[in-house]
Amino acid sequence: MVGSVAGALLPKYWKRPFTFRALAESNPMKTQIQLEQPLLTVSDGELVSQAQRGSLTAFDELVARHQERIFALAYRVLWNREDAADIQQETFVRAWTRMKSFRGHAAFTTWLHRIALNLCLTKKRRRDWLEPPATLDEEVGCRGGSFGTICAEKLDTAIAVREAVAALPARQRALIVLKEIEGRSCEEIAEIVGGSAASVRTRLSRARTALREKMRPYLEEEL
């Protein structure tokens, strides 16, 4: 229910993070390892392995593959375009500087999400207010990834869901985003936020209850 509407609420324009060749001079891992296969045929695991050996080409491809999802997560948690772009960039900066510490116990995308979510929660703790969208057109004329574009007749519902999700505490909001919008399993969410899948289910149930309460005025108005 939430995912079909709130999933489309992303800004139309967002800043693509820089490529990592600019870091080459300050990079302690000087070796540049070129990819031996066309990029599209190389798995994330192989790209990670090459990036860990110092390949900026490989890491740039990882950025290209995952940057939009990281921006989407940050935007849905923070509801602020500029903050989401900052989180997106900082996530990949940290990932690059910590590549040696990635052991592959979880998927690379899960590791990235964990970094991004921790950065979001830290930023949210520093700022207990939310910046409203700059214009309605910017919110509606958005790219929603695999979630598609919302129809005009669903705009009121989309805005109501957005406001309800935005009003949740940051940790509950993150759970709703990861489960209802990104469609992740409780096991995957546990790897990102920490704890067990059972504890995620419990916290998610509480978050859904809180979301229903936030939506109650809108639902009663519809009746």
What does this structure look like?
By secondary structure, the chain is mostly helical. It has one domain (2-222): Orthogonal Bundle (Rna Polymerase Sigma Factor, Chain: A), CATH 1.10.1740. Helices cover 61% and strands 0% of the residues. It has ten helices and no strands. The chain has helices at residues 2-6, 44-52, 56-78, 81-97, 108-126, 136-140, 155-166, 170-181, 186-193, 197-222. Helix 2 packs across helix 3, helix 3 (56-78) packs antiparallel against helix 4 (81-97) and helix 5 crosses helix 9. The longest helix has 26 residues, at 197-222. The protein is elongated and about 55 Å long.
Which CATH first-tier class would you pick?
A: Mainly Alpha
User: What class, by secondary structure content?
Assistant: mainly alpha
For this structure, the CATH topology is: Rna Polymerase Sigma Factor, Chain: A
Q: What's the number of helices?
A: 10
Number of strands: 0
* Percent helix: 55-70%
Range of strand content: under 5%
Tally of discrete structural domains: 1
Report the end-to-end length measured between terminal Cα atoms: 18 Å
Mean pLDDT comes to 75
The rounded Rg comes to 19 Å
Per CATH, the superfamily is RNA polymerase sigma factor, region 2, helix turn helix motif
State the oligomer: single chain
Order of helices and strands: HHHHHHHHHH
Shape: elongated
Contiguous low-pLDDT stretches (5 residues minimum) are: 1-18, 21-36, 129-153
What is the CATH-assigned architecture? Orthogonal Bundle
Q: How would a crystallographer describe the biggest sheet?
A: none
